[in-house]
């Protein structure tokens, strides 16, 4: 019997007794013990569930805490970072235009009028958008020293953000002329946010390094984006946030088909995308059983950037909203409307569509097989390398020579050419020699080549002669 069934069975056996006799009888004591045990068991199960959820989220977060080199290689196979460029800047006030901080011209001469200046603002800020969504590795800020004539130096206490992620916090009594901050985060906006009042923010140039992300262009932005997890400001009864992403299009809240917050000020629902994306469109399913006016005034943001605000008397049932913002966190918030009364947030389903990030990774050379050569008339005619050889190294060499195929011989030789297979094919056991630059691969044998197809081809593919 279950814990609850045992408790109620004992209660039914003692219905004929009075409450006082029930408390004094041995069976009554048993009822109390069972009830106490049930309560303790329920608490233990809740704690175990919370621990399990925490471990699951921790595992997801740890998977995203990759090294800079790993992330760069995931994007396109190379760990080299590039210069990234900014456009469409704004700042808290315009004493000198913010464009001076993104014009690719570093002039730090005091009062040169070639730096972006704000007036003495309350918590001044600067923001600019990258040309493309990118993985940002580091940001270099150029400014001028000793600006106290115009106000406090805002760069003595500020946060540096990529998207809505704070990648650096700087607190110091000393100013600087230029400083580099590590970031290693994905986004399309750079923001410098000072925490000082009556302070002047001066930026002569903002230089960003990293790598542009590749986006899937399949289906013209109609690719369904996967939401890995969600959260809500509160939960009424058991109408949890996952009910808005469970692919159940039933719009009856009373049947448990919707996510639903308690009545509060500015309730919100948030979904975390499995991979960052340009969110092109949201499809929102309101509750249909009643009270559709609860979803009349709301805002949609992606990584803190507003992409749509709905404020109308017309009640929505199922409706699409255009967005076109990049990020990984999508939030729907009931906004302050005509009244500041508390409100519920009902969401029966939220579907997201757009252009997800695609991690290309390293392009590996494709192994073809084991083939013999002839000394006087070789298939692969060019000897390109003789030292510490591996398939990756030979692949890079032959790619630069614009050759479609390469072969590894005798464990250390790299040969490049336009065709292979003129003398038949050997069994794999004859390509037995270990590569001297890699323990993972075999590199042919004497006058026998392990043939690969070059991974990066910038030429018309040659048809091999068999």
From TrEMBL:
Keywords: Calcium, Disulfide bond, Lectin, Metal-binding. GO terms for molecular function: fucose binding; metal ion binding. Pfam families: F5_F8_type_C_2, WSC. One of its GO terms (biological process) is regulation of cellular defense response. InterPro entries: BG_Antigen-Binding_Lectin, FTP1, Galactose-bd-like_sf, WSC_carb-bd. The keyword Metal-binding applies. The keyword Ion transport does not apply. Residues 364-455 form the WSC domain. PROSITE patterns: WSC. Homotrimer. Belongs to the fucolectin family. Acts as a defensive agent. Recognizes blood group fucosylated oligosaccharides including A, B, H and Lewis B-type antigens. Does not recognize Lewis A antigen and has low affinity for monovalent haptens. This is WSC domain-containing protein. It comes from Macrostomum lignano. The lineage of its organism: Eukaryota, Metazoa, Spiralia, Lophotrochozoa, Platyhelminthes.
